[in-house]
TrEMBL record:
Transmembrane region(s): 12-35, 41-64, 71-89, 109-129, 141-160, 196-217
Keyword Membrane among record annotations: yes
Species of origin: Hymenobacter jeongseonensis
Official protein name in the record: DUF1361 domain-containing protein
A Pfam family per the record: DUF1361
InterPro entries with a match to the protein in the record: DUF1361
Keyword line: Membrane, Transmembrane, Transmembrane helix
Length: 225
């Protein structure tokens, strides 16, 4: 798939800022290892890698020199949706924040907030790419329906990952257990209030955040025209 040089140049500032922000998280994680001699938060590097995967997929589609074929969009879109919850999932790593000996509390706060921020920004940047692709082909309202459903499904994925400890690979490695747990919650919703509480609350939070990010840049773009 050939890359459009014009699209690439337009996105270079975004790539630079995201790389800078991710670099800060890497430095903070590495600094903590040097400070404590422990690998306690090294797992956040893997979480950041998983969070970057959907952005890489959506960016590849958006940078294509020619409009991707529908079958390719569907294929990449399915893989994208599978990995997309890994990005906003980083917000829940705030659960790991507590006072620990050998490292200032403010340092751990900055470290985890940095990773959570990167997860959110990668999620929103990736969703914006996919939202734009859907909107160009189907229209404005189908685009927003797609974005809303994607965020709600990602919130459900956050629940599956944080509380049931499933991950994106389990759709291949452990599909029967994953399917059973999902089906059980769909058939008996009132037996699992936490499932739907997490899904709805995080879904609304992510949707409001996404709408805010989109609106923040619009007035400035109009002023520069």
């Amino acid at each position: 798939m050939a890359i459009s040089s014009l699209a690439l140049r337009r996105r270079l500032p975004l790539f630079f800022v995201l790389a800078l922000s991710l670099g800060l998280s890497f430095v903070l994680i590495g600094g903590r290892v040097l400070l404590t001699g422990k690998l306690q938060f090294i797992f956040l590097l893997w979480n950041l890698f998983l969070a970057a995967l959907p952005f890489c997929l959506s960016a590849a589609l958006s940078l294509a020199a020619n409009p991707p074929r529908p079958w390719l969009i569907l294929l990449v879109g399915a893989v994208w949706l599978l990995f997309f919850p890994n990005a906003p999932y980083l917000v829940t790593d705030l659960f790991h924040l507590e006072i620990r000996p050998g490292v200032p509390y403010w340092y751990d706060l900055a470290l985890i907030l940095s990773c959570s921020w990167n997860g959110l920004m990668l999620a929103y940047a990736s969703l914006l790419d996919m939202h734009t692709l859907v909107q160009r082909r189907l229209g404005r309202w189908p685009g927003w329906v797609f974005a809303t459903v994607a965020l709600l499904l990602s919130s459900f994925g956050i629940y599956l990952g944080r509380y049931l400890r499933f991950n994106s690979w389990d759709i291949l490695a452990n599909p029967l257990t994953l399917f059973y747990d999902i089906l059980n919650r769909l058939v008996n919703p009132f037996s699992y209030p936490r499932t739907w509480g997490v899904t709805v609350v995080f879904g609304v939070f992510l949707l409001i955040g996404y709408g805010t990010v989109r609106l923040l840049g619009r007035p400035h773009e109009e002023e520069l025209r």
